[in-house]
Amino acid sequence: xxxxxxxxxxxxxxxxxxxxxxxxxxxxxxxxxxxxxxxxxxxxxxxxxxxxxxxxxxxxxxxxxxxxxxxxxxxxxxxxxxxxxxxxxxxxxxxxxxxxxxxxxxxxxxxxxxxxxxxxxxxxxxxxxxxxxxxxxxxxxxxxxxxxxxxxxxxxxxxxxxxxxxxxxxxxxxxxxxxxxxxxxxxxxxxxxxxxxxxxxxxxxxxxxxxxxxxxxxxxxxxxxxxxxxxxxxxxxxxxxxxxxxxxxxxxxxxxxxxxxxxxxxxxxxxxxxxxxxxxxxxxxxxxxxxxxxxxxxxxxxxxxxxxxxxxxxxxxxxxxxxxxxx
Amino acid sequence: xxxxxxxxxxxxxxxxxxxxxxxxxxxxxxx
Lengths: 327, 31
Hints:
Chain A is of the alpha+beta class. Chain A has helices at residues 2-7, 13-36, 46-54, 57-67, 74-88, 106-110, 156-160, 174-178, 224-229, 233-236, and strands spanning 127-128, 133-140, 145-149, 152-155, 184-192, 200-202, 207-215, 239-246, 249-256, 263-266, 285-288, 298-301, 304-309, 312-315, 320-325. The relative contact order of chain A is 0.14.
């Protein structure tokens, strides 16, 4: 062994670094070339997803929330928020309060409201955008699989959870379960909110929310790059699913959390608690808004009790529904 | 964060969108 060691040249750090770094760059280059050939980007393997999920993102998220809850001294507010504005391209002219000293901490700044006039409601469309952001994907739902981004799908049933069956027909597909008429189809649209976007969400149409289903879960990033890499990402992350009915039948809005934005608030649902320190995997918590006949449901909204008759929570197009919070 | 809309609509429902486009609260998604 001694002789052997004497024969081998002592490994010099620089050549070693060049060798390994060059090898890695070469691997990345050929991997990217594979993508340029039109092949979809390789999906994460179950091991890679498990590894990513084992990362303490909830702990990070909650720590991030605590940090952003710390009140900043007045003199520090302008520099800190100006850095955030510059980094994420925030348009403060649209904010209801433009004076940066008004926001006591980054959490409050993140929840800033907009001037009502800066978001006019499109009158000619029966469906409007619920949030500011970027359209990640949209289209018709084929079979019972939804695309999170082109070519990467997730199961409708895993995403929404079990739905009550109409009648006794157990042979129909999950998708058929949701449809009220064979002349209709299921559609979907995904809006990605970047860190600098306004983070409240509004009602995309006139509809009634019958059920709120909260899935505690991972808090992986939902950045478009990760959405291309992790199949079923939207089924793994913490999310709040609101389901109900609109003029054409089934309607649902789902807010999906992420590492830096782990908390979701729904103004008419004060019971909802997201980004809790502990949760049991695969669990979900329902809140039913369709009261039994004799029960009159009252739910507390941001501006006091929201009227709820036995048919669920009535929401109007453009009405503020909830918000994402840091941490 | 992400908002996912899943809804039933007549088969001739049409989106007025482009993938990757910027969108803001209140802008029409389709009809």
